[in-house]
Amino acid sequence: MKAGLTYRITSILLLLLAIGHTLGFRRTDSKWGVDSLPSTMQSLRFDVQGFSRTYWDFFVGSGFIISAFLVFSAVFAWQLGGLPRETLALMRGPAWALVACFFVVTILNWRYFFVTPLIFSIAITLCLIVAAWLSAKPR
Questions:
Q1: Taking the domains of the chain in order of start, what are their residue ranges?
Q2: Which tens digits make up the pLDDT trace of 98-139?
Q3: Does the pLDDT value for residue 1 go beyond 80?
Q4: CA–CA distance from 56 to each of 13, 53, 72, 85, 103 (Å)?
Q5: Under a CB-based contact definition with an 8 Å cutoff, are residues 47 and 61 in contact?
Q6: How far apart are the first and last CA of the chain?
């Protein structure tokens, strides 16, 4: 397998994760027994640094920031996938930094979230490791 193809596969996985996250992070299930929590988060207002906000505002804003970074990561991985081998060999630092980032994301998903994001983050991290390894040296 070539590094470019692995980066492109990673990019698609990242985009799917971004879409799933964006569509799902504000949803709740009545089986969870937390129906009142979102309305409470939306109703409690407070002033912070000149703005009136709710905890729901912080929750939604943080969720969209995560989605934005996932889309950026997808674009970055796609761009890496289009680079020649020689250029990829020069991009070892950013490539391994991306691996490290998603390794941490995988640990955070394991610790704080649930199976679907965990599976995606494991697959993304493994693809990034393979791509970074394959692109380390030009032929």
A1: 3-25+34-134
A2: 999 999 999 999 999 999 999 999 999 999 999 999 998 655
A3: no
A4: 28, 8, 24, 45, 28
A5: no
A6: 14
Encoded tokens for 9: 């596969």
* Alpha helices, H only, 25-114: 36-43, 55-81, 85-90, 92-112
Of how many residues is the chain composed?
139
- Residue 35's pLDDT is 86
Nearest-5° angle of CA 31, CA 35, CA 38? 135
Q: Looking up tokens 């492109």, which residue turns up?
A: 8
Residue 103: name the closest of 80, 82, 122, 83 by CA.
Answer: 122
Residue type, 129: I
Q: Is the dihedral of CA 109, 123, 3, 69 positive or negative?
A: negative
